[in-house]
Design a protein that fits this description.
This protein is of the alpha/beta class and 367 residues long. It has ten helices and 14 strands. The chain folds into two domains: 6-238, Aspartate Aminotransferase, domain 2 (3-Layer(aba) Sandwich), CATH 3.40.640; 243-363, Aspartate Aminotransferase, domain 1, CATH 3.90.1150.10.
């Protein structure tokens, strides 16, 4: 059993993917070829914003966004500790200081009610994470940011394709940042990412930053990085977009069915909740277990793969611990001890899903 079944997806899209890649091989424009502009236009339209700027990875997307807003050494960015390290990594790399706010126990997303208490005169931005595929409470966060005159950067590495009311993740704030890592809901066959904005000046800055600060060839107007997304990866995503709406619907159906199959197991096992005013694209389908190792080992004996995203919060990581000495974020710490992700992909059939849920129920003593 595959945790994420990319092989079936490829078989379904083989002809289109191969044709798109072959076209790039034929024209030979491997860097900033025509597929890059085509992908950016289509993604911007899908998200509902004026600009999409593709880049080399989701991590680069965060760095480019932070550079575009002018993050300086000593500036603070409010974010959460229960996330992949890249969220804090890019802040620190640019000389900034992550200021952490604990998350909600039911959604695993940043607790918007706690953010106001973390804002200081040095706060330069708020960076909520749309974890596991579900946007955070963006209306509340945007309203707070507006009162303080600071931008919001959505770390939407896991949530491309999710909806928040009538709007789309990546189009909910000043800048949205996403990843096209192969395991993401929309994934390429290597590294890739993108930023999204309605702000013309930020879009210009991000395009220049991702191309080593060039306004035009050999004319460097700002500090930049080598952060371009290569043309072949864009070609792969263009092919995958043909089926993406269907895949999102499948993810929604499978995620909701998991919820039904795993209902009534609390407190031994509980599911991550999705708020009624938004959707999750379930980059991971995650449960929270009182005895994670027991559940994981029981599933392993049945040939069912699992994964843990994320066992160690940012403030507990060896490199970052000194920055947060004496600080505790109990919800994030508890989630790190309990979260367990189950197989999740658009090609998961009902029989296999029932088998997985049955194994969880049996391991929790509720068969």
């Amino acid at each position: 059993m595959d945790f994420i079944d990319l092989k079936t997806q490829y078989r379904e899209l083989r002809e289109s993917i191969n044709a798109r890649i072959q076209k790039v091989l034929d024209h030979g424009q491997f860097i900033l070829g025509p597929e890059v502009a085509e992908l950016e236009e289509r993604l911007a339209h899908r998200v509902g914003v004026r600009h999409c700027v593709s880049c080399a990875s989701g991590t680069d997307a965060l760095q480019i966004a932070l550079m575009a807003i002018g993050l300086r050494p000593g500036d603070e960015v409010v974010t959460c500790p229960f996330t992949f390290v890249a969220t804090a990594e890019m802040i620190v790399l640019l000389g900034g200081k992550p200021v952490l706010v604990d998350v909600e126990p039911d959604t695993c997303n940043i607790d918007a009610r706690r953010i106001a208490g973390a804002i200081t005169p040095r706060t330069r931005a708020i960076m909520p994470v749309s974890l596991y595929g579900q946007p955070a409470d963006m209306d509340e966060i945007n309203a707070l940011a507006a009162r303080h005159g600071i931008p919001v950067l959505e770390d939407a590495a896991q949530s491309f394709g999710a909806a928040y009311g009538r709007r789309k993740s990546c189009g909910l704030s000043t800048i949205g940042c996403t990843s096209f890592f192969p395991s993401k809901p929309l994934g390429c066959y290597g590294e890739g990412g993108a930023t999204f904005t309605d702000d013309d000046s930020l879009a210009t800055a991000m395009r220049e930053i991702r191309h080593q600060g060039q306004e035009r060839r050999y004319h460097h107007t700002r500090l930049g990085i080598n952060g371009r997304m290569d043309t072949i990866q864009c070609a792969v995503l263009l092919a995958k977009l043909e089926r993406f709406d269907w895949e999102i619907e499948r993810r929604l159906t499978i995620g909701r069915r998991y919820d039904e199959l795993l209902a009534g197991l609390a407190p031994a096992v509980r599911t991550v909740k999705v708020r009624p005013d938004r959707t999750s694209v379930y980059a991971q389908y995650t449960i929270v277990c009182e005895e994670r190792e027991v559940i994981a080992k029981a599933l392993g004996r049945e040939g069912i793969p699992t994964a843990v995203h994320y066992p160690v919060a940012i403030h507990q990581q060896p490199f970052y611990a000194a920055m947060f000495r004496g600080e505790s974020f109990p919800v994030s710490e508890e989630l790190g001890r309990g979260v367990l992700s189950l197989p999740m992909h658009p090609y998961l059939d009902e029989a296999t899903q029932s088998r997985i849920a049955g194994a969880v129920r049996a391991a929790a003593g509720r068969s």
